[in-house]
Structure formats: structure tokens, C-alpha cells
Write a structure and sequence with these properties.
Mean pLDDT: 88
Radius of gyration: 41 Å
Largest sheet: 8 strands, antiparallel, barrel
Strand order of the largest sheet: 1-3-4-5-6-7-8-9
Oligomer: single chain
Helix content: 10-25%
């Protein structure tokens, strides 16, 4: 019978220990306390020493940091008797307790218990009921270790008219078994805001938020040295630390913008994905280092995706290093080099722009309106998604809409060292470039130019590629004037300070099949004769 009881107790204890990881938020403590057991009101007994052990199970959290649970205790102590004999006590009890944490490292606990004790004295043995009341003050050294001082009162039934009233006191150690077996971080993260992630702006997100998260401290104490980082596997070389907080109190929450240092692998995305990213929260709880890795899905769009919430963002598609654009621009420059370097009254920037414009027409570039991706419609709704082509793509497709053609033309000019700009008017975007005219030149205040920032910009309606440079210039100037002050000119250099230019992978795999150099030179010289007359007519 005794063997069966022992097996049952051992099995129950083993199952209880295994259950701790399954219910980590229900705190389980083991306490041990050496004590002094001092009987009160009975002169025959004298104080003695002993020890008690407890298994506490806290499973209800109440308002104002109160916690409720059940405690199972047992112990052994001895009382000295005046006849030089010993009164030994083996006891066990169970009952409720309630505690409250007042400071990060200090809490108080009150407990009640009822049970039985077995005494042995002068050859006599018996089992009798008992009642307990106890009080402890705990100092939390770490999440799993606490020191405590405790005192209590026990009422032992001894004889019908002779109970033993005992006062107990001692110092002890408390272990949080859950923290020992499975020390879990107790913080949570909730995404409270989300920005769309566009690969073309991958460098911009290092200093600008992609989302907002709210971090909540669920530890019973304050957490310190809080560090938050974001990581998206494959598209980041390492996690990005986006926030650091010295202290976050128990139950407190704080919201932070998430930033990320992406790598160029984002530019390989050909379709939208819902990326499995992770927000890591590292902190210290009562000196112990903890870390929580919280999955947080992030929508990432394909590399051509774009929104017109900031028109300057389109500057990222303008790439002076795009292999297709560089090859095209250098080829055209070589084809007209003799004419450009000859005696002419036009600035060199204008001559090269004319050559590139006419070469694009010879190449077969067409203006194509995409009804599903029209600047006219999408620019009025900043939340709408657009698809923009990189320069090499427009060359490969031999066409595009107004934003695609403007990106290509600006990329060609920038490849030759000529500063460019985007012009936006209601429902339209087109290109402008630094004409090369200096402020000191006499007679340059005529119509057809836009003077801004010390530069005379020449507007070009690139969609009129089949009508000649002179007509494209006229249309660009007219559109600026018709905008009646609603037009905006964005110099590319200024926009690049926010949105760096990128070149998509694979841009150099299919270089454009260029027109004949002699044909480019012929078209260029004819266009220059027309432009020369127009230029001086405007002065």
C-alpha cells in the first residue's frame, strides 16, 4: 500500500512538472524556508527549528497587479520539551493565497491553509488537523529567483482542550519553475500601420518607415534596455535596429516606426509577395536578457510597382547607369560628335538633347497609353498603384506612356552628364533639361524656357517624338504656361537626395539595336537647323 502511494505521488509530481511548459503564463513556484517554530501559551513546550517547502500555482491575474493561486505545503519541525524530550511534527497543508507586486523587485503575499500533521512524542504517534495563516515579503533577484522573509501562525489540535498555537518565522528562497524550465519573453507586438514597400525605393526605407508597431510589456515588472529590430530574410543582409527604449513599465505600450535597410535583391521581384518578416524585441527583465521574435507579414510589391503619393519618387527609375540607356546615349553622342563640336550657336546641352530625341524617333519609340496604368487617372489618386518601366525596358518594348518616355529621356541625358527634371501638370508628367544657357548670357529671358534655381530649363513633350524636337519644345512650353501656376518642376538631383536612382538586374542583357550612325547624323543636322531658327526667334 505504501509503495502504491509513493508511486502515485511521484507520477503526479512528474506529470505536474511536464505540464509547466504547456501553461507558461500560469506561474509555478517552489519555495523553501528554514524556520523557527515557537509555541505560544504553553509553557511545557519550548521553541525549536525546522523547515517548510511549498509548491505555489498562480493562475488568476486580478486588477491592480493582484494574483490569486493555490499553495501546497509540507514541512518538518521539532519542539523542545521541558522534560528534555522532543516533540516532532511532520505536516502538510493546502490553501489559497493572494499576492501583489508593489515594485519591480518587491511583492507581498498572504496565504491560508488547512491540513493535517503527524506528531511523535515519547513513543506516541497521532495524526491531527491543523490550520495556517502566513505572510511573506519577497525580493525578486531575477525572473526565476526570489528571496523572502516569512512569518505565520499555525493552530495545531493536540488534545480536546489543549491546542498548540505556534508562531513561525524564517528566511527562504523562491524559484519560478516556469522561468527555469522555459524562460519565455513576455512582450507582444501589434502592427498599427503599414506602408507599401516598393523595390525601386529600397534604399529610402533605411530612414523612412515601412510600418508602425506597438510593443506591449506583459512582464510583471519593468523591462529595460529595450531594442527593436526588423529582418526580412534574403532581402536584408542583417536585421535593422529601428528603435531603442531605456525602460518600459509593466503593462505599458509604446508605438514605433519600423525602418529597414534592404539590399538590391528586392529589385529581382517580378510579382507581389507577402513576405514573412520578423520583428525582434530584445530586453532585460530584472537583469535577465530575453528576446522575442514576432512574425509580422509585410506586403512587398514587384520591382515596377509605384504610387504617385510623391511625384519625386519616380526619380528612382531615372538611372544614368542603366546599361541600355548608357549604350544608347553614348552611341548617339559618337554619331553626332563632329557636328556638336563644330561651330554652332546652340549650347552643347541642347544639341545633344536634339540628337537623342531624333535618335529615339529613328529607333522606333512610340507613345503608348496604357488604360490600366495611366498617369492621368492614377496621379489623381495617390493610393493607386502604377507600373513604371526602367529605361532598358522602354527601349526593349520600343514604347511607353508619358512617364515611361520621360524616365527614358531623362536617363539618356543624365548618362551624358546633362541635368534633368520632371515637370508635372494636372494629369501629365514630362521632361525638362538644363539648356546650358548661363544667366549672364544676354537676351535669354525669352519664352520657351523655365527659369528656376539659377538654371534655364528647356521643357520637352517627349510623347511628340514623331513630330520633331522643335514641336516637342513648343508643346512642353505651352503645357507649362497653360498649367497657370499649377505646374511643378522637380530637378532630378534634388529628388535623388530622397530617392536614389537604381538599375534593375538584367538591364544589360539585351542592348538596343541602334539605327545607322549616318541616319542619326542626318536627322540631327536637319533638326538643328530648325531649332536654331526657333531659338533665336524666342530671344
Amino acid at each position: 500500500m505504501e509503495t502504491a502511494k509513493k508511486r502515485f505521488i511521484l507520477s503526479a509530481t512528474f506529470c505536474f512538472m511536464l505540464s509547466i511548459p504547456l501553461f507558461p503564463e500560469n506561474k509555478v513556484f517552489f519555495r523553501f524556508m528554514p524556520l523557527v517554530n515557537a509555541p505560544a501559551g504553553i509553557e511545557y513546550f519550548e521553541p525549536g527549528f525546522g523547515g517548510r517547502a511549498f509548491l505555489d500555482y498562480s493562475f488568476v491575474s486580478l486588477p491592480q497587479k493582484f494574483n490569486f493561486g493555490l499553495s501546497l505545503g509540507g514541512g518538518y519541525s521539532r519542539l523542545s520539551v521541558k522534560d528534555n524530550s522532543v516533540f516532532s511534527i511532520l505536516e502538510g497543508d493546502a490553501g489559497p493565497f493572494i499576492d501583489r507586486q508593489f515594485l519591480d523587485r518587491f511583492s507581498l503575499r498572504l496565504g491560508l491553509g488547512a491540513g493535517v500533521y503527524r506528531y511523535q512524542w515519547n513513543g506516541r504517534k497521532n495524526i491531527r488537523p491543523k490550520l495556517d495563516a502566513s505572510f511573506q515579503a519577497l525580493f525578486h533577484v531575477s525572473p526565476f529567483l526570489s528571496l523572502f522573509a516569512g512569518a505565520g501562525y499555525t493552530w495545531y489540535t493536540f488534545a480536546d482542550a489543549l491546542p498548540i498555537n505556534s508562531v513561525k518565522a524564517g528566511l527562504g528562497v523562491s524559484l519560478n519553475l516556469g522561468e527555469l524550465v522555459q524562460p519565455l519573453p513576455r512582450v507582444s507586438a501589434e502592427k498599427t500601420g503599414q506602408r507599401r514597400i516598393f523595390p525601386v525605393s529600397y534604399a529610402w526605407y533605411e530612414d523612412n518607415e515601412i510600418a508602425r508597431v506597438k510593443i506591449s510589456n506583459n512582464e510583471p515588472n519593468a523591462i529595460t534596455s529595450v531594442e527593436l529590430s526588423f529582418y526580412l530574410e534574403r532581402y536584408m543582409n542583417q536585421p535593422t535596429l529601428f528603435a531603442a527604449v531605456p525602460r518600459l513599465g509593466p503593462g505599458e505600450s509604446a508605438e514605433f516606426p519600423v525602418t529597414a535597410l534592404f539590399n538590391e535583391s528586392l529589385l529581382e521581384l517580378l510579382e507581389n509577395i507577402n513576405a514573412n518578416s520578423v520583428v525582434s524585441v530584445g530586453y532585460r527583465s530584472l537583469g535577465m536578457k530575453k528576446e522575442a521574435n514576432i512574425p509580422m507579414p509585410m506586403p512587398v510589391y514587384h520591382r515596377n510597382a509605384f504610387s504617385w503619393d510623391d511625384d519625386r519618387r519616380a526619380a528612382s527609375f531615372v538611372s544614368p547607369g542603366d546599361p541600355g540607356a548608357v549604350y544608347f546615349a553614348r552611341f548617339v553622342e559618337a554619331a553626332v560628335r563632329k557636328s556638336v563640336n563644330s561651330d554652332t550657336r546652340l549650347p552643347k546641352n541642347m544639341l545633344l538633347a536634339v540628337a537623342l530625341f531624333e535618335a529615339l524617333d529613328l529607333y522606333g519609340i512610340n507613345y503608348l497609353v496604357d488604360p490600366a496604368s495611366s498617369y492621368v487617372e492614377l496621379s489623381e489618386n495617390a493610393s493607386s498603384l502604377d507600373n513604371l518601366n526602367y529605361p532598358y525596358q522602354t527601349l526593349m518594348y520600343r514604347g511607353g506612356d508619358c512617364d515611361d518616355l520621360s524616365i527614358l529621356f531623362c536617363s539618356l541625358l543624365e548618362a551624358l552628364g546633362i541635368k534633368t527634371a520632371f515637370i508635372t501638370t494636372p494629369g501629365h508628367i514630362y521632361a525638362a533639361f538644363d539648356s546650358g544657357i548661363t544667366v549672364e548670357e544676354p537676351g535669354t529671358a525669352g519664352t520657351g524656357f523655365i527659369y528656376a534655381g539659377g538654371t534655364y530649363w528647356l521643357p520637352v513633350e517627349i510623347t511628340a517624338s514623331g513630330e520633331g524636337f522643335a514641336e516637342a519644345w513648343r508643346l512642353g512650353s505651352q503645357e507649362w504656361n497653360d498649367a497657370d501656376g499649377e505646374g511643378v518642376l522637380y530637378p532630378m538631383g534634388d529628388s535623388w537626395l530622397l530617392y536614389q536612382p537604381v538599375s534593375a538586374p538584367g538591364a544589360g542583357e539585351n542592348l538596343p539595336a541602334m539605327p545607322e550612325e549616318t541616319e542619326i547624323a542626318r536627322r540631327f543636322e536637319a533638326s538643328v537647323r530648325t531649332i536654331t531658327g526657333v531659338y533665336y526667334a524666342k530671344k
